[in-house]
Amino acid sequence: MTIDEVIRRIEEVGIIPVVRAASVEEATRAVEAICAGGIPVVEITMTVPNAVSVIREVAKQHAATTLIGAGTVTTAEQAESCIRAGAEFLVSPGLSAHVLSAARAAGKLAIPGALTPTELMNAHEHGARLVKIFPCGNVGGPKYLRSLKAPFPKAELIPTGGVNAANAAEFIAAGAFALGVGADLVDAVALREGNLEKISAAAQELVQAVISARAALREKKPIPVSR
Q1: Domain residue spans in the chain?
Q2: What is the CATH number of domain 3-215?
Q3: Whole-structure pTM value
Q4: Which one of 26, 43, 88, 170 is the catalytic residue?
């Protein structure tokens, strides 16, 4: 896929599930549960044991229907390995010029992380088209994202950290391009116990929350505020 196609797909779905698991088997099950819940995008983090092998296996099984990315990518070597394994996009917790350069050379999308206005400006100066705002929930959540969008109205931001179905609408209303969702979607206990139905149900709930929030924005209806 081209970078433009990947960006459009992320925008369409509006959710990037972040998969962290204790084993290859758990990661594979998590991906299957997320897809069954209606989210055809996954980000497999490099903190998963044998992450590159997981990406390769998931790509073999799901690449035709699912957009597969790699997360917590911090070096050019990791970026190149993930891309060779089948990752269509890379996500980092911060900004690495080397990761951006490796992705650009391979014709793939890299999404750096940022938190402050200075970091966001730096990411844009390095050519980032999408930027992950992390850890967004720890610094004000939707209110912080809205404040950040004020001086950067054209910035395409993906809040991550503390994002869930209960506050998804607020993040969308605050201007989120898409949502990065981790533990609130891929429940570690449910995954360990093999309760994949819980993960699929959480995925379905999140999908509906994003759809409803976007519809409310189009119709200019009030966005419910989580308590």
Answers
A1: 3-215
A2: 3.20.20.70
A3: 0.94
A4: 43
